[in-house]
Amino acid sequence: MSASLTRYDSRVEAATSLSIAALHAAQDAIGDTAVRLRDAHQRLALAETRTAFELLRLRMVCDRQRRVDDQLLDDIATQLEVLEDITTARDEAEQDLLDLLAEAERQRSTAAVAVAAAPAVVRSR
Question: How many domains does the structure of the chain reveal?
């Protein structure tokens, strides 16, 4: 999985401290937050793939060299409805991932502040 799956890959990697490939390959060795991020990332990647596919299908319907008639207009309208439904699902998957990323980033930030605020332990020899 070297190619980018979504535009949020780098944020998911930063939030989980794992590469996308390692995150998707991990089964039980990751925490609950990472599992939720992995699943949301997979849903978004699939939704983006479906959106691209349906957009391509719409282009194919429009590019056919055929007479503009009721059937062509019906085919275009049907494909637009499908594309609308798919993009709605994609947008919901994207928002779910963004919500989880915001939560994970807040947790990381809080943990970093707690570590920075902890008094340094000085050991004498």
Answer: 1
